[in-house]
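Is protoporphyrin IX containing FE placement plausible here? Inputs below.
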Amino acid sequence: MTDHMPDGLSAAGRDLRAYTDHLRPKHPVVRNTNGEWVLLRHADVLAAALDQEHFSSQVSHFLQIPNGLDGQEHTLYRTIVEHYLSQGAVEPFVPVFKKIASQLAASLPRGEVVDAVNDIGAVFAVRAQCAWLGWPTELEPRLLDWMKDNHAATRSGNRSWMAEVAGQFDDIIRSVIQPRRSAGGIAPDDLTTNLCRQKVNGRLLTEAELVSILRNWTGGDLGSIALCVGVLIAHLAKHPALVARIREGSDTEVEAIINEILRLDNPFVSNRRITTCPVEIAGQTIPKGEKVKLNWTSANRDEAVFDNNCFNPEAHAASNLLYGAGKHTCPGQLLATWELRIALKSILKTVQSIRFAPGETPEREVAPVGGYRRVPILIT
Ligand code: HEM
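Reply from A.M.:
I modeled the complex. Tokens:
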């Protein structure tokens, strides 16, 4: 976010969480340098997420399935996507994710500085996702390089670089789906092949639709999981009492703790909408056809909803917007939750405690990316 305050300040190069904390009390709605209206308060973000009549999701010229669709078209594709992310579809992969996480944890160098974002989060996210989708392990280094380029391009705000990096990702996806689409009955039996055989309105999904769906599951998710792992590990290094609660907690308890840590420091920053008519928010009239950003990171720290932002998983669960709200609420929540819980538990099995590497401090990401860029820890 490169937001301009009414007084001309910009978020470029700043810690987005700290900056929106600073803005929110006096400026519930700000306009950024791209001319987008950014909603910072919980009530406004939630209201916009629930209001499909005044806020459309058709914000991009690119095909975005299902996130860029509205109404019945959204429901049609959303039903397909939910099928692949349902409990029955995700849970068979739990043992696979556990194996990947424990192998990764065992392979981390002892007595050396390890970066929780890039050495743990990104590697786990890429490996888990390749296993889930049936993508070849040879793609892993390419995906890891792509994640770094993607973050750098996003951070730069350079639109042509961002478009180029997005195009590289589409090429990776095409390299996986094209052989499956032409192989007929002899394609590997995996999720990507099943998706290639998926029908919508009695016809197969087109290549453009497949690329869009897979881009949505992978491009954004890989980065989110890596950033979430960084935020979780940094939080545990600062609050060691939580380590025992996670080690001993049930799946439900651990999920609640994870969601509360990520509420306080939500690296999945925002999503966009476009107004279908003039709307008034916090005394500000936003004309029809304007882009509006729902800033989840800021909304999730709104003091009016989360009493002084103390850590309280039970009390804050119902208002937590980590996975959004309304019709576009994240269908990947179950998969993300399993992955994060497994990654965290596996790391905690291999260490007595999590602590920052001596002499090193974690580096925050800067707008428009959230969370940490680097979380140096020592594995002993
Ligand atoms: C910790 C990780 C994740 C976070 C914090 C997260 C968060 C979100 C949020 C806030 C939305 C709402 C977007 C909106 O209202 O415009 C969303 C939508 C979505 N997420 Fe996630 N997500 C995560 C992981 C995943 C994963 C693992 C997948 C699938 C592999 C996934 C797939 C999607 C899809 C397809 C949508 C669009 C849904 C629609 O438009 O109906 N997400 N996510």
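Short version: DSSP finds 15 helices and 15 strands in the chain.
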